[in-house]
Amino acid sequence: MKSKIGVYICQCGSNISDYVDVEAVKDIVKEFEGVDFAKVTMFACADSTQKEIVSDIESQGLDGIVIASCSPKLHLLTFRNAAERAGLNPYNYVQVNIREQCSWPHSDNPKKATDKAVQLIKAGIERVKRSEELSPIGIESLNSVLVVGAGIAGMRAAIELGNMGTKVYLIEKEHFIGGRVPQWNKLFTSDEPSNKVIEKLYAQIINHSNIELYTGAEMTSKNGSVGNFTVDIQVKSSGVNKETVDASRFDQLINSCKIEVPEEFNFGLTKRKAIYKNQKGQYPEGLVIDFENCTKCGDCQKGVDFVTLEDKTETLNLKVGALLLATGSDPYTP
Ligand code: SF4
Ligand code: SF4
After folding, report:
1. Cis link prior to 110 (omega < 30° from 0)?
2. Ligand 1 touching residue 12 (CB < 6 A)
3. Does ligand 1 come within 6 angstroms of the Cβ of 273?
4. What's the pLDDT at 329?
5. pLDDT, tens digit, for every residue of 22-46?
6. Regarding the domain with residue range 144-237+313-325, which homologous superfamily does it belong to in the CATH classification?
7. Which residue is closest in CA terms to ligand 1's atom 8?
8. Which portions of the chain are predicted below pLDDT 70?
9. Residues pairing with 95 in the sheet
10. What is the CB neighbour count within 10 angstroms for residue 309?
11. Model pLDDT, residue 230
12. CATH numeric code, 5-129
């Protein structure tokens, strides 16, 4: 257990101290077991304060530090590096967020904000007391990633990874990619039509030499560990031959189908046929058979050679260094 902990309480100019009584917090937390000292600082991330922290660690022989300031997203590495410069293992440092999680959301109640800051720092002290010295480890990894889900997050991730030189397998369980975004009209704040956003990303994906896209595809098994996974991907047939498909016949074939089911794209408010095409903003543009509802009556096959009605699946076995899940979310009505 660490027993010589330095606690720094940041004012962030006045972002924190306008709502949290930092002096009162300091007076309380300095009495907690294991705390060597607590001090208030105007800007914990300032160079001068970092130098002070380094000097304190060295001169006082601190075995842990807690910095109560902003989100670790902002300065976790700043203070880990400061700890390291002072010879303290960077994992014996804990950042407590008393700005985004305390002073800002509770600006209407400074008393409770102050109480909460004390509790958050107390938890941080307990955490650093039990912290262990850790060292980074290096793992050999295949330079390939499976991205699961081709909504906007998965598409963007695939492009970023592909641009970094990583081989990307992008899979989407639906036959069309784009996820939720095509269901929207325009994007805030750019006012860009949502279908245009997906159109541009799709163009990048299909022209990217590092990205392989599989639609109607789901991961069915995964083995291995970080850096080296083996995954099985089951790819469903769309029931339509993409090589010979004739887009001018789509409407005729759809009209020939008598099976109607709720249209998922419109949240079930409208109906679609068992053979249906992509909605605006969904890609690739094409025709798909919904084999869960298709009766295989054959009406949509009459006079065309590209409707196969073959409800078969193909299994791919891939080796990847990492999995990235971007499976999206469903709308929630409280
Ligand atoms: S460490 Fe965070 S909270 Fe403190 S001054 Fe810097 S930005 Fe503000
Ligand atoms: S084969 Fe299936 S998709 Fe085609 S018309 Fe019949 S029910 Fe509809």
Report:
1. no
2. yes
3. no
4. 86
5. 999 999 999 999 999 999 999 999 9
6. FAD/NAD(P)-binding domain (3.50.50.60)
7. 12
8. none
9. 67
10. 16
11. 98
12. 3.40.50
Cis peptide before 189 (omega within 30 of 0): yes
For the four alpha carbons of 126, 132, 133 and 135, in that order, the dihedral sign comes to negative
**CATH 3.50.50.60 residue window(s) in the chain:** 144-237+313-325
Place of tokens 């543009």: 285
**ipTM score of the complex?**
0.66
For ligand 2, atom 8, name the residue with the nearest CA.
257
Helix or strand holding residue 199 (H, E): helix 194-206
Give the model's pLDDT for residue 330.
85
Atom of ligand 2 nearest to the CA of 298: 1
Between vectors from CA 324 to CA 311 and to CA 215, what angle results, nearest 5°?
Answer: 20
Q: Any idea which ligand is nearest the CA of 53?
A: 1
What number does the ligand 2 atom closest to the CA of 301 have?
4
Q: How far, in Å, from the CA of 33 to the mean position of ligand 2?
A: 73
Place of tokens 């902990």: 5
Ligand 2 binding pocket mutation candidate from 273, 299, 302, 306 (most atoms within 8 A of CB): 299
Outline which parts of the chain fall under CATH 3.40.50. 5-129
